[in-house]
Prior knowledge:
Structural class: alpha/beta
Mean pLDDT: 95
CATH class of the largest domain: Alpha Beta
Low-confidence stretches: 332-338
Number of helices: 15
CATH topology of the largest domain: Rossmann fold
CATH architecture of the largest domain: 3-Layer(aba) Sandwich
Bound molecules: NADPH dihydro-nicotinamide-adenine-dinucleotide phosphate, 1,3-dihydroxyacetonephosphate
Distance between the termini: 47 Å
Amino acid sequence: MNWVVLGAGHWGVALAVHLARQGHSVRLWGRHPESLPCPSAGGDLSPHFPQVSRPARLTCTTDLAAAVAGCAGMVLAVPSHAVRNTLLSLRESLPAGQMVVLASKGLELETDLRLDQVLGQILKERPFAVISGPTFAAELVAGLPVAMTAASASADLAQEVARSFGNEQMRVYTSDDVAGVCLGGAIKNVLAIAAGISDGLGNGFSARAALITRGLAELRRLGTALGGRTETFMGLAGAGDLILTATSDLSRNRRVGLGLGRGLPLAQVLREIGQEAEGVRTAQALFLLAQREGVEMPITEQVFRVLYQGLAPREASDALMQRELRSEFTVLGQGSSAHGAP
Ligand SMILES: NC(=O)C1=CN([C@@H]2O[C@H](COP(=O)(O)OP(=O)(O)OC[C@H]3O[C@@H](n4cnc5c(N)ncnc54)[C@H](OP(=O)(O)O)[C@@H]3O)[C@@H](O)[C@H]2O)C=CC1
Ligand SMILES: O=C(CO)COP(=O)(O)O
């Protein structure tokens, strides 16, 4: 089968390589030739993964319309801020029947929309799928085992995506909870920043476990208010991805938090990471979204205040510890909010 992957960052390259290793013919599209791994003199995946050899079935192009022509499946792996414009510039040239699979994570900053909502606005009635879950690009490229979730309103499409991506290295589960899967992937990035801040401050393992658990509670609280399902937030695209990114230093979002917690300015931290850390933008959109929905998200709020209002990380940590005491879980009819105990 012919696939095109849009976005030549670490994730786009990793997914393109994964599909090519499965025997698919894959075109990788990126804006700039210098970020594409082909042609590279050494036949490797420079600049992102110079130590890994490039599969023969992987080709590269900077021509967007030519990239999608004749492909049975398309993967969108551009950063969240580029999803709308990339799709809009393709709308007229998308081949009929081409599978569309979203692999980016985040919220659209200008609208607070989930990325599946952005796709819905542009693709109208055309079905699409989302693939998400705890998987680092570097580990996928290294051939390590991973598990992900493919979600679509169309059960047939979810299964087709699971079959296309799934192999002995990648186990793909299917779901129909598109909103939940997108929210899990977006919100965990903000919570990974929080975990990084806590560790950067030297708060310790106990604090990190508490942050992950209470972070999951606020993910579920907003997620269910927006139509996602609790089991999705407890699954690979929620808890799974949150645990991964909140605990591993391979996570760019966690590293943003680590830098801030150690007292470095945000601009310096982002410059040193030099890659997308979606949680930084998402924190802003998420904070506004939670306010509009009337859902309390205390950890998200503190991350937003550190990133955008100059709050010191130690003060943010103290503010979370000094909140009013309350029941851990929602107890219906006992004074909890409609969306559960914050
Ligand atoms: N890395 C990972 O392990 C995973 C990442 N993701 C998600 O994948 C998405 C991409 O992340 P990732 O590839 O890791 O990020 P990277 O920082 O590795 O790369 C981002 C790429 O996006 C390109 N880009 C930037 N702006 C635009 C634009 N307007 N149009 C087209 N391309 C653009 C840049 O290329 P250039 O400027 O050269 O054009 C760059 O190559 C994010 O939403 C992330 O959350 C999801 C799961 C795992
Ligand atoms: O989403 C990811 C793994 O599932 C990658 O996380 P970071 O963007 O924080 O590196």
